[in-house]
Amino acid sequence: MTDRPRQLLYFTNNDSGRDVEITLPVLHFAERFLNCEVRATLTTNIHEIHRLRPDCVVVANTIGALLHFHISREAHKLGIPVFALISEGNFKTDGSFDYWGYNTDKIFYQSYLCCWSRRTRDFLREELPQMKDRIVLTGGTGFDRYRIYQFESRRPFLSRHGVDPAKFDRIIGYAGWGFGKLAHPRGRSELLNYFKGDAAMLDWAETQRLAVEDILRRSIEAHPDTLFILKKHPTETVAAEPGAEDNEMAALKDYPNVLYLLDEQLHDLINIVDLWWVYESTTALEADMMGKQTLFIVPDPDFPRVTLFEGFPQAESFEEVDAMSETFFTSGNLPGYRAEERIQRRREIVRETIGYDDGCNHIRAAYYLKRTLEQPPRGRRARLSLYYFFVYWTLRALVPLYRPNLFAKIPWLRRKLWVFDKYPLRGLPELKARYEAYLDKFYEDANIAERFKQGTLFDDLLDSPPSEKT
């Protein structure tokens, strides 16, 4: 590595949330051990690639949003390497997963495709043999926090949301599925792809939405002394196509024992609940890593699913949900949760889903960032995009003038209010500083600095033998 600090330009569309969680640990490792300096900017500021000419562009993924794809392509045009993770890494390998996403060029411009598990890595290597050496196993970096961070406790969490901590004896959390995608065209298209083009499954999904909503409603009404915290899925709606709040939870938000959350740190939420409910979600693994038990609520389980559910109890009706949850509160365990075969299956699911649960996935990812930075420069001249130039400077001019009520009345700005809300990324420095303290403690306890200095760190952690570490 050169003595000059490498400049990383990190694009994000938020100052918190899932994509931030998966990237911040990698960026901190890069600053601490790879002689890097990081500058964060909003995903709309693509012109900053031309303006700053960083050594590397970093994004959470290059397929989950159109702007992320445009960022990777623009950097590639300038010969600037791109390092990207993957936000939704626990995908099905039956052909239904669109691994191109918003990448209309069907060319991956990042240096590596970082996979959560051997299962998904091997699938993509078969699908894209020409890229085999660039498809690598890192594990799910966002899951490292459950081995490293400390989380908000119940009393401050509830007080922050205006809930009297003494009012409820029990707290149940529910992780929303993407049912709200049914409410807007882009979401329906994503679900249609998920169901392999079977349009009839969209009607099935609506039936499931209503069934899950009914189970939640009956549970809420049957247990007024229990607080139900309902968490909207982060990709259910997109800023440009917000659609309606037409998921399985929104109609329940006015009950006095319901807290409906749109944006919240998932780990803090899981930390303060007694029991976790899901329809279909990798948060079940996250809850298990935090010592919290999960019940799957699936009225009709006959649909294409990943194998995650096999490690957890499952209920199909309100009666089953109620009885199994009551068993948990009286005995301390969901039925069958501690059965040896379920425990073993959850261990297998960790390998199949997130690769590793040792807190070191971000270090594995950082190895491939290091390799990206070691690539010889590919200096290229590319024509300045007048569109990106205009967007960048227009936003710079409008942000100081932003007034939500006023801008909401201007048609061409109404659908872009999220840009002005998030533009300063105000919460990112504070979040980064808080996490860095936990990460540095983890590095100290695991002797990371010495292992890195001795050159053994990556050999200890990577899946492939040295000859295959490409």
Automatic annotation (TrEMBL):
Family annotation (SUPFAM superfamilies): UDP-Glycosyltransferase/glycogen phosphorylase (SSF53756)
Name the UniProt record assigns to this protein: Uncharacterized protein
UniProt organism field: Coraliomargarita sinensis
